[in-house]
From TrEMBL:
Main location per the UniProt record: periplasm
One GO biological process term: FtsZ-dependent cytokinesis
Domain YbgF trimerisation positions: 32-104
Name of protein: Cell division coordinator CpoB
Compartment(s) where it occurs, according to its Swiss-Prot or TrEMBL record: Periplasm
Keyword Transcription in record: no
Lineage, uppermost ranks: Bacteria, Pseudomonadati, Pseudomonadota, Gammaproteobacteria, Alteromonadales
Function description: Mediates coordination of peptidoglycan synthesis and outer membrane constriction during cell division.
Record keywords: Cell cycle, Cell division, Periplasm, Signal
Cited InterPro entries: CpoB (IPR034706), CpoB_C (IPR014162), TPR-like_helical_dom_sf (IPR011990), TPR_rpt (IPR019734), YbgF_tri (IPR032519)
Gene3D superfamilies noted in UniProt: 1.20.5.110, Tetratricopeptide repeat domain
Keyword Signal: yes
Organism encoding this protein: Shewanella livingstonensis
Similarity remark: Belongs to the CpoB family.
Length: 245
């Protein structure tokens, strides 16, 4: 009898277990499906974050490449400009004061030059003076042409360049006092001119010619301070490095 009761109890317990199985839950209290869903969302969010990060990195890389291209283009243009400037300096520096006597000499006295300036007008007079240097290579004739232009149009937009050209021509003829006056005019009167830095360098070179090393050094340092990273500054640094005493 006791054995039959025991068997019946075991049968009842087993039936109860199979009839109502307990749900499986994770440590956070959710079911397996909930946990899988959460993991999928976490993985998806992480993948989206990595995708966004990669997209931003690609965008930054493209910006860097664009900036590098712009920089290279600007460097090329700067080198071209410096090369042209050096050519102009060489053309002026290498001219000879002596020239063959022309068959039909052109008058270059102050009166005739002034008359020509009044006829050509402001822009025409300046271009005519520049062409005497660059095209005709008549450097001696260009000096009175620039002087006449400066006298006639002292406030012209070309006045700073005209004074610089005049100073350069006089410097190459070793007429340092007159050249100094022309360069000093650019420095003191045309403070916004892009020729001011070059004029300061030329004044420093004239100071060297006059054995004024201290004055030359001060002028070169002024260029380095006021026109850093410019062609004038690089030329000033070269002169400063070669300066003795």
């Amino acid at each position: 009898m006791r054995k039959a009761i025991l068997v019946a109890a075991m049968f009842f317990t087993t039936a109860t277990v199979f009839a109502a199985p307990a749900p499986v839950e994770d440590a956070a209290g959710g079911s397996n499906d909930d946990r899988i869903s959460r993991l999928e969302r976490i993985i998806k969010a992480k993948q989206q974050g990595e995708f966004d990060m990669q997209r931003r990195m690609d965008a930054l890389q493209n910006e860097v490449l664009d900036l590098r291209g712009i920089t290279e283009q600007q460097n090329y243009q700067m080198n071209q400009m410096l090369q042209r400037q050096r050519q102009l300096y060489e053309e002026i520096a290498n001219f000879t004061a002596k020239s063959s006597t022309p068959a039909a000499p052109v008058q270059t006295d102050a009166t005739s030059v002034a008359a020509a300036s009044s006829t050509l007008g402001e822009t025409g007079s300046y271009e005519a003076a520049v062409n005497l240097v660059l095209k005709d290579r008549k450097y001696d004739d260009a000096i009175p042409a620039f002087r006449s232009f400066i006298s006639t149009y002292p406030e012209s937009n070309y006045a700073a360049n005209a004074n610089y050209w005049l100073g350069q021509l006089l410097y190459n003829k070793n007429e340092y006092n007159d050249a100094k006056q022309a360069f000093s005019t650019v420095v003191s009167k045309f403070t916004d001119s892009n020729k001011r830095g070059d004029s300061l360098v030329k004044l420093g070179m004239i100071a060297e010619k006059e054995n004024d090393s201290a004055g030359a050094r001060a002028l070169y340092n002024k260029v380095l301070k006021e026109y850093a990273d410019s062609a004038s500054a690089r030329l000033a640094q070269q002169q400063l490095s070669a300066l003795k005493g």
